[in-house]
Automatic annotation (TrEMBL):
NCBIfam families attached to this UniProt entry: spore_YyaC (TIGR02841)
Species: Clostridium bovifaecis
UniProt entry keywords in alphabetical sequence: Hydrolase, Protease
One annotated GO biological process: proteolysis
GO molecular function: peptidase activity
Protein name, per record: Spore protease YyaC
Highest taxon, organism lineage: Bacteria
Length: 205
């Protein structure tokens, strides 16, 4: 059964919610000893499509060796190299658990929402690109409205929306890793999470 969760990134407790959803899933994956891979899809050449690489950039200094990361601002994973990256992942890792992260378009009232689903995502769907579905779990952030001229919509997406989503998703992932496979004490973990939430309150109030 496909589980689907929708979070509002503008809610202060969205980091806690994402942390708890992912932690529950990570515990099961860790027990099965499958390598966890974060595949952050997108390009830095388009504001609306830069969510994945921005999240990858934030995570590269946070998760260290706790998980494998593909897709950053320096080395993005996009339409032209996605198939090669997937081949590399499947060649290097045995039965990897892939968490695919990407931007998407949706209705105007859902802009800023985060969707977590136990199913692959279809990268490039908004641009009518024929790419393979990817991921055991998908995390998508709705950055703008869907409809006509998706390329122009992505190009004219507010950076504020993308950065807010990137902050919440990267922090939620980071704290879920600390909770499940990190080695910090519970008190340190709670202090770090509280500090993050307070910073977001100040940054986006």
């Amino acid at each position: 059964m496909n589980a689907k969760f929708t979070l509002n990134s503008m809610e202060i407790d969205s980091i806690y919610q994402l942390r708890d959803i992912l932690s529950e899933k990570f515990i099961k994956i860790i027990k099965s000893q499958r390598p966890i891979i974060f595949l952050c899809i997108g390009t830095d050449r388009s504001t609306g499509d830069s969510l994945g690489p921005l999240i990858g950039d934030k995570l590269k200094n946070l998760i260290n060796d706790k998980a494998i990361l593909y897709g950053t601002l320096e080395h993005p994973v996009h339409a032209k190299n996605l198939c090669l990256i997937l081949e590399e992942i499947n060649a290097k890792y045995n039965n990897p658990y892939i968490i695919a992260i990407d931007a998407c378009l949706g209705s105007i009232q859902n802009i800023g929402n985060i969707i977590i689903e136990d199913k692959p995502l279809s990268p490039g769907a908004a641009m009518n690109k024929q790419l393979p579905k990817v991921g055991d779990l998908s995390i998508t952030g709705i950055v703008n409205i869907s409809g006509a001229l998706e390329f122009m919509v992505l190009q004219n997406t507010r950076l504020y929306t993308v950065m807010r989503l990137a902050d919440v998703i990267s922090r939620g992932i980071y704290h879920s890793i600390l909770k499940t496979i990190g080695n910090k004490s519970t008190s340190d973990f709670n202090m770090a999470l509280t500090s993050t939430v307070e910073n977001l309150k100040i940054k986006y109030k």
